[in-house]
From TrEMBL:
SUPFAM superfamilies: Homeodomain-like (SSF46689), Regulatory protein AraC (SSF51215). Residues 185-283 form the HTH araC/xylS-type domain. PROSITE patterns: HTH_ARAC_FAMILY_1, HTH_ARAC_FAMILY_2. This is Transcriptional regulator, AraC family. It comes from Caldicellulosiruptor acetigenus (strain ATCC 700853 / DSM 12137 / I77R1B). Keywords: DNA-binding, Transcription, Transcription regulation. InterPro entries: AraC-bd (IPR003313), Homeodomain-like_sf (IPR009057), HTH-like (IPR037923), HTH_AraC (IPR018060), HTH_AraC-typ_CS (IPR018062), RmlC-like_jellyroll (IPR014710), Tscrpt_reg_AraC-type_HTH (IPR020449). Pfam families: AraC_binding, HTH_18. Transmembrane segments: none annotated.
């Protein structure tokens, strides 16, 4: 098996027969962030109220009430809550809109988006598209009989508008940018799979086939975080999961998520969450 496929995100969005999910809590509650990540699925982010900022492939976008953001397949994206947002993320495999037999919708339109040969504009204002996205969220929440038909129907109408109104760049992804993204993806994949082990920046740079200096610069350009910041924040998020779901001691958790020094773990946890892991654990008991 290709090593990249083994390392890639293993989250199942929806089910095998209906590969879509609508997520309501996309920010980590403790610090209101969404760490940079990537997946092959297409994603639509919608803000019902409040404000939030997002980063997609190194570019920053600000969303207010009733605004939306498109995240193309394979894009590196993350975000931060600003003022009490109510966000939704519609994540789905584009193949759910394909037919098994000869399919003009697949061949003429959607396959190119799946392969990043065509890209949807990340952010734009269009009340019609916004209403369609909002409708999907409403239908998803209500789950009335036949809701799957309506969800797929709305997705088809959304892509009709995207192509019809010129919100899709037919030329596809910038080759140079995609090469940069692939290098950072290899680092993110490795961190996500080896966070409990010792992680060395030199090794990550070597995996990306870059010098340490250029790797660190490119990593921050794409994610807006240094490699060390990303590793620490990722480990703290894993630690929060263990505090919530296990009876492990704080020391055990520190070593389990890759910190070889408990004092440093406590310091990083407090910087990230605002309180020590001991107090956090006490608060949730």
């Amino acid at each position: 098996m290709d090593e990249r496929l083994k390392l890639k995100e293993k989250v199942q969005h929806g089910s095998a027969v209906f590969p879509i999910n609508v997520y309501e809590k996309i920010f980590v509650h403790e610090n209101n962030t969404l760490l940079p990540h990537w997946h092959d699925e297409f994603e639509i982010v919608y803000l019902e109220k409040g404000t939030a900022s997002f980063r997609v492939d190194g570019k920053e976008y600000f969303l207010g009430p009733k605004e939306f953001l498109f995240v193309n397949c394979g894009s590196i994206h993350g975000g931060k809550a600003e003022e009490n947002p109510e966000p939704y993320a519609i994540v789905f495999n584009l193949s759910m809109l394909f037919s098994e037999g000869p399919d003009i919708c697949k061949n003429k339109y959607l396959q190119s988006i799946l392969e990043r040969k065509a890209l949807v504009q990340n952010k734009f204002d269009d009340s019609c598209v916004g209403e369609l996205i909002s409708n999907i969220i409403t239908v998803w929440k209500e789950r009335k009989k036949g809701y799957e038909l309506l969800v797929k129907g709305y997705l088809f109408v959304i892509f009709y508008h995207l192509f019809n109104k010129g919100y899709i760049t037919a030329g596809g992804a910038d080759r140079e940018l995609d090469l940069k993204l692939e290098k950072i993806k290899s680092a993110l994949d490795y961190i996500n799979s080896h966070y409990s082990s010792e992680l060395d920046i030199d090794l990550l740079a070597k995996l990306a086939n870059l010098s340490k200096f250029y790797f660190c610069r490119l990593f921050k350009e794409i994610t807006h975080l240094t490699p060390v910041d990303y590793i620490n924040k990722f480990r703290v998020e894993k630690a929060i999961e263990l505090i919530k779901n296990t009876n492990m001691s704080i020391s055990e958790i520190a070593f389990e998520v890759g910190f070889n020094n408990v004092s440093y773990f406590i310091k990083v946890f407090k910087e990230y969450v605002g309180i020590t892991p001991f107090k956090y654990k006490k608060n949730i008991l």
